[in-house]
Amino acid sequence: MRILVTGGAGFLGSHLIDVLLANGDSVVCIDDFSTGRRINLDHHRDNPRLDILDHDVTVPLEIDVDQIYNLACPASPVSYQQDPVRTTQTIVIGAINMLNLARRLNIPILQASTSEVYGDPIVHPQTEDYWGNVNPIGVRSCYDEGKRCAETLFFDYHRQYGVDIKVMRIFNTYGPRMAPNDGRVISNLMCQALRDEPLTIFGDGSQTRSFCFVSDLIEAMVRFMATPREVTGPLNVGNPHETTIAELAEMIVGLSGSESALHNLPLPSDDPRQRRPAIDRARQALSWQPTVSIEDGLTRTLAYFRERGI
Ligand code: NAD
Ligand code: UDP
């Protein structure tokens, strides 16, 4: 098969491309390299089954492929808030362009949606039938509402035009190839720990997240694409092991052997208080569950940042 991956030079996209190429497929990666990095795909430089196009998803694309994974979008709060108007454009216009392509070619398309569609959730853990608690006018809204609108578009293209859609709500995922400077908590804390700098804890560190290692996430993504047409999602995918940010920081200090202390800073506005996926639907539909423990995943990620000389 020839498979289109938008945002393929990013953290998740590059791991997805590794798996698709290893499965024997050909891949077309499109990326504008705004948050992604060519180095993430450098190890495939000589692979004739990978084409990399410098292309912006907000511009329509005519290309012949068999499947589309739509991942193009800045994912860290720091990056998506840098140019919020562009973030909404990337998500919404990008979704329309990719859905039009999927419709014309009559091929399946998977959307990298997010746990942010639940906003600052009141229901805990979050199930797919929860509609969320999202501020429509806050600093995170460009991303949260953009991704909600993309989900709307996916389901309308499905109902109106019969497009084969797969909507995957991704919860916090981490691992090698996260950009060291993209502002997400695991990359920030690891780089600070390895430099023996204070670890920046926003608020008192009692807010929770549930972190999934990248290999588990990509396995679910590829399985989702292989499901029959009637499996549209939305499906939560993540690791239900929940931790506070303070506990995460302590783990990173312990695993890295760092001398760093914790340093509390103000909590950014609309920062969700708690987040944990209910993954019963994904377990059933994909015969899948996460297998990498947080200690193992953090150790592998630390090794990556160490090797890079952070
Ligand atoms: P990332 O920033 O590493 O990757 C995003 C990629 O999209 C980058 O390579 C970037 O250059 C590219 N991109 C951005 N705007 C583009 C545009 N207009 N045209 C073409 N390419 C563009 O982030 P990631 O963590 O790999 O996230 C990938 C996808 O998964 C995103 O859609 C994100 O919203 C979603 N997601 C990720 C997580 C997570 O924890 N990593 C959680 C929920 C959802
Ligand atoms: N966070 C933190 N220190 C940092 C970066 C983030 O305490 O240096 C917190 C942030 O406020 C949030 C959590 O860690 O509560 C996860 O943040 P991230 O930006 O990784 O993802 P998201 O908020 O989108 O889940």
What attributes characterize this protein structure?
single chain; 310 residues; alpha/beta; Rossmann fold; 7-stranded parallel sheet; two-stranded parallel sheet; 37% helix; globular; binds nicotinamide-adenine-dinucleotide; binds uridine-5'-diphosphate
Kindly report the spatial arrangement of strands forming the biggest sheet. 3-2-1-4-5-6-11
Structural class: alpha/beta
Strand content: 15-25%
Mean pLDDT: 98
Which architecture of the domain at 2-174 and 213-239 and 279-290 would the CATH scheme give at its second level? 3-Layer(aba) Sandwich
Contiguous helical run count: 9
Named once each, the bound ligands are: nicotinamide-adenine-dinucleotide, uridine-5'-diphosphate
User: Can you write the helix and strand succession as a string?
Assistant: EHEEEHHEHEEHEEEHEEHEHH
In CATH, the topology of the domain at 2-174 and 213-239 and 279-290 is named Rossmann fold
Please compute the radius of gyration using only Cα atoms.
Answer: 19 Å
Percentage of residues assigned to helices: 25-40%
Major sheet characteristics: 7 strands, parallel
CATH class term of the domain at 2-174 and 213-239 and 279-290: Alpha Beta
Q: Choose one word for the global shape.
A: globular
Distance between the termini: 38 Å
* Annotated CATH homologous superfamily of the domain at 2-174 and 213-239 and 279-290: NAD(P)-binding Rossmann-like Domain
Could you list the spans in which at least 5 consecutive residues all have pLDDT below 50? none
Q: Would you report the number of β strands?
A: 13
